[in-house]
Amino acid sequence: MKPEILNRHLPIVAIVGRPNVGKSTLFNRMTGRRKAVVLDTPGVTRDRNYHVAEWNGTRMLVVDTGGYESEPTHELSAAMREQTQLAIDEADVIIHVVDAEEPLNPTDSEIQQLLRRAGKPVLVAVNKCDNESRRLAAMAEFSALGVDVFPISALHGLRTGELLDAVVDALPKHSEEDEAALAEREGIRVAVVGRPNVGKSTLVNKILGYERVIASPVPGTTRDPVDTTFTYNDKVYTLIDTAGIRRRGKIERGCENLSVLAALMSLERCDVALIVVDALEGLTDQDAHVAGYAVDAGCGCIIVINKWDAVEKDEKTAGAFVKALRAEWGFLKHAPVVHVSALTGLRVPRIFELVDQVYAEYTKRIDTSELNQWLQQALGRQSPPIHKGRQLKIKYVTQTGTKPPTFTFFVNDPELLYYSYERYLANRLRERFGFEGVPIRLRFREK
Asked: What is the pTM of this model?
């Protein structure tokens, strides 16, 4: 059974349409980055792209899909059609992109029929409306679809703001009472992530004490996230088992592509991620890629070294493994590490001790007066560098959020900030206040 919509931190917006109508250009416009490959060639978007976008304070996960074709001519186009259907199933709001340079296409009508059956809010974005005459012609042509039509130019950003306003209005709304009830019902959300076949499902089964998910030595058995809410030591947790994440170049077409998206969605809605690593195979580039996804999602992190029972070791082996991990994963040097065996249960209870500790850090708040005392000490220890006669002046700092802890520094000019000094402040924050296992976000605003 699929989790209810409230189970997601972020609503999902899917961009669908025929090949070469400008879906990836709109994706780039919405997310503010050139993540999708854009070429003037039909079908160039083969994998689904996904990234968090924000508009007027509302965050959403935007999914870009490959082109939908009525009659797939080869295996790749059939997979792209399947991906479009899967994106529609997952989405809260759907943007159907059509081309103002072409009349209403039979495939556009077929997509609309597909969307009507889905029963989701649908907005039609008529792309390439670069002038007034084309805008008027597009409105007349595509109004026949019977849904809200937005003439835009994704390339130049014309009227995309009106489209995004409509997207935000169509997203599901949840009251603070809904969110509080959900948080109480689910407790601490823990996602189990890692590349395929590192023992994630076996670990979930050991924690839950029964075969909640199928554990198999064949990589790729788990396709969809599975949520299980349970009580352990009088505390409520929701455990999310996910499909294995591979590097982008290794992702196969079709259902495995959806599995990666589902795993990334799980990271977006969890509080703490258990990043599972295979002790027998050691650290790989794919492991680092998974860990990077967790850091980007802003969740707390615990590194779980699995299959430790099968490793030939002495009293120095564990320390050497952790030392190598810290050297390779400098971006996760704050994350605690635990060596376990999901098969035998070795040190599995220790995981939840760490989950509680990391969650406490994830939700921790620091008083503003204490923060500014710390700031004066940090500035006295090392002043911001001077560049071309100008120096960054930090007026004060306050904590503006948790999950993850977020701090806003009010300064004379954010452009004067050097990355090295931002890193210095982050290190001093950790040195003074801890935040073990969680990322911290620093924001700099002009006073």
From this structure: 0.68
CA-CA distance, 272 to 283, in Å (whole number)? 21
Which of 30-39, 141-150, 172-181, 327-336 shows the highest mean pLDDT? 327-336
DSSP-assigned letters across all residues of 331-385: GGTTS-EEE-BTTTTBTHHHHHHHHHHHHHHHT----HHHHHHHHHHHHHHSPPP
> Which of 31-45, 111-125, 216-230, 234-248 reaches the highest mean pLDDT?
111-125
- 257 vs 346, residue with greater confidence: 346
Do residues 28 and 34 make contact, with C-beta atoms less than 8 angstroms apart?
Answer: yes
* Tokens encoding 99: 């081309």
Which positions ≥6 away from 68 have C-beta within 8 Å? 16, 17, 18, 19, 80, 81, 84, 107, 111
Other beta carbons less than 10 A from residue 37's beta carbon: 12
- CA 296, CA 57: separation in Å to the nearest integer? 19
Cβ-based neighbour number of residue 349 at 10 Å: 12
State the alpha helices, DSSP H only, in 283-347. 285-297, 317-328
| Rounded-to-integer distance, Cα 349 and Cα 23, Å | 47
CATH topology of domain 5-170: Rossmann fold (3.40.50)
368-446 and 177-362 share a CATH fold: no
Q: Mean per-residue pLDDT for 88-106?
A: 88
Model confidence at 1: pLDDT above 50: no
The ranges assigned to domains in the chain are 5-170, 177-362, 368-446
Write out the H or E segment, with its range, that includes residue 60. Answer: strand 58-64
Looking at the structure, give the CATH architecture of the domain made up of residues 177-362: 3-Layer(aba) Sandwich (3.40)
